[in-house]
Amino acid sequence: MNESSAEARPEPSPAPGREAAPGRVVLLTTSHRVAPGLLSWPAWQALRAADAVLCADGAHPQLPYLREAGIAVAKESPTAGELVDACAGGRTVVVVATGEGEPELTDGLARLAGSGRVAMPELELLPASYDLPGARLLDLVQVMDRIRAECPWSSRQTHEGLAKYGIEEAYELVEAIEAGDRTELREELGDVLLQVVFHSRIAEEHPEAPFSIDDVAGGIVAKLIRRHPHIFGDEQAETPEDVRAQWLRVKADEKRRTSVTDGVPLGQPGLALAAKLASRVRTAGLEVPLPRGEGIGYELLALAVRAEADGVDPEAALRAAARVYRDAIKDSEAARTAGGAEGDEG
Q1: Phi, psi of 206 (to 5 degrees)
Q2: Rounded to whole angstroms, how far apart are CA atoms 207 and 88?
Q3: Could you give the CA distance from residue 172 to residue 184 in angstroms, rounded to a whole number?
């Protein structure tokens, strides 16, 4: 067999017995996100029963494991016609697909089948391994590794320099959620995820206390398991209120904080900060009178505390009102522009 194109070769002539036993082609696909050699049982059965196993890529990551299992693999890139000939007499040929999935070969087979002049072998697409949920995160980590190493801008970034982007992306995510835009939501979630992966990649280079994305993921997995003992342990939680109380109890045991205000970031927006403090006070069952003072700040504090008590997010409520205000501004601008145009015509 050689690698000449299907167009350059004549169509195979039906050989004696070809019509009765055209054979079988198995296109075996694998995922680069799954460790080589971890193939499904149907894949191993097809490989062992095949009359020939072909692979165009001599460096395919599966080849060492196939050969270790005693399966002979020929480095060949057959055309569609050559593959049909190889299956003559009822033979089975397995093609270990490259990462691109052999589009030229499958297109050539489709053209032969469409001609109606060739008895075609049975064609089976057999996935030998499947991506697990979250497998594309491995791609993201690999891409980030390369960008960090090769990009003149990304290779110089620090945690401190990227901090502002984390804030911006979080706000854009909130905006997409509030707007109900599913396309924007997916994109903004990706941008937030990028910040996590980027910071984790930078953290690997710390000379004294490095950590990786696996450490980050491992930490949050352990935290989730600890804080859900009703799922991963023996405790009971029948209602959302039970779950919240349990979460707070486990968190308090972990943090050993001396005040309900510990862990509340003071740099967050003012309304959100006031609501968070009010939430901590209410959850702890404390009676803390609001401070009295002059000025808009104290008035806003009282409004934020009242909103939190009513189950309203004051930041979200203010943003909603601000969007209505923005639309009113645009309407006013449009009316003024229209009025000016009418005056010009007059």
Answers
A1: -65, 130
A2: 63
A3: 9
Q: List the beta bridge partners of residue 95.
A: 27, 54
Integer Rg of the chain from CA: 32
pLDDT of residue 253: 82
Distance CA 321, CA 342 (A): 32
The answer to whether 338 and 312 are in contact (CB under 8 A) is no
Residue 344: per-residue pLDDT: 63
Among all chains, which residue has been given the structure tokens 């645009």? 330
215 and 223 Cβ atoms separated by less than 8 Å: no
Strands 92-96, 122-127: parallel, antiparallel or unpaired by DSSP? unpaired
**What pLDDT, on a 0 to 100 scale, did the predictor assign at position 260?**
86
How much is the pLDDT for 98? 85
Backbone angles phi, psi at 93, to 5 degrees: -120, 125
Over the chain, what HEC string results? CCCCCHHHCCCCCCCCCCCCCCCEEEEEECCCCCCCCCCCHHHHHHHHHCCEEEECCCCCCCHHHHHHCCCCCEECCCCHHHHHHHCCCCCEEEEECCCCCCHHHHHHHHHHHHHCCCCCCEEEEEECCCCCCCCHHHHHHHHHHHHHHHCCCHHHCCHHHHHHHHHHHHHHHHHHHHHCCHHHHHHHHHHHHHHHHHHHHHHCCCCCCCCCHHHHHHHHHHHHHHCCHHHHCCCCCCCHHHHHHHHHHHHHHHHCCCCCCCCCCCCCCHHHHHHHHHHHHHHHCCCCCCCCCCCHHHHHHHHHHHHHHCCCCHHHHHHHHHHHHHHHHHHHHHHHHHHHHHHHHC
Which residues are CB-neighbours of 168 under 8 A, at least 6 positions away? none
pLDDT attached to residue 5: 39
| Token pair for 230 | 């009703």
What strand order describes the sheet that includes 52-55? 74-75, 52-55, 92-96, 24-29, 122-127
Spans of the chain below 70 pLDDT: 1-20, 341-346
pTM for the model stands at 0.69
